[in-house]
Structure formats: C-alpha cells, structure tokens
Write a structure and sequence with these properties.
The protein is an alpha+beta fold and about 70 residues long. Helices cover about 20% and strands about 35% of the residues. The chain contains 1 helix and 4 strands. It has a 4-stranded antiparallel sheet with strand order 3-2-1-4, with no helix packed on it. It is globular and about 35 Å long.
Length: about 70
C-alpha cells in the first residue's frame, strides 16, 4: 500500500528451499535469497512495516500475504 514507507524482513516463499531477505522502500521491492539464514530463520518469517494509517490496510495486507501463490 502507498501508506507503507518501509518494510523489511525474512520470508519463505512458497516452494522455496531457502529464505529470502525482503526490503521495500518507497514502493520498490528488493528480494534476495539468503541461504545462510536457513538454519536460523525457522519455518515462517517475519516482516516489519513502517507507515501511516495501519488500521486501514492491515487486514488487506495480511490476507495478501496469506493467499496461495499465483
């Protein structure tokens, strides 16, 4: 959402064998595989979002992150 200024974290994409480091700044997404984090990342991931008006976009964002891959 445009209200998100920054997002950063470690995620596991569906079907991926290693986690990825994700960084979003001003709407630009960067994602890179991080095999070194495989042992410490656990089964899920964690993302931190910085922005404004969280209640207006929180549920849509969570639904999108939980959606099955295209």
């Amino acid at each position: 959402p445009p209200a998100v200024y920054r997002a950063k974290g470690v995620v596991r994409y569906a079907g991926a064998s290693v986690p990825a480091l994700v960084n979003v700044t001003a709407g630009r997404l960067q994602s890179q595989w991080e095999p070194a984090l495989d042992a410490t990342a656990g089964p899920g991931g964690a993302l931190v979002f910085i922005g404004r008006d969280l209640p207006s976009w929180r549920e849509d964002l969570l639904a999108a992150l939980d959606a099955p891959p295209l």
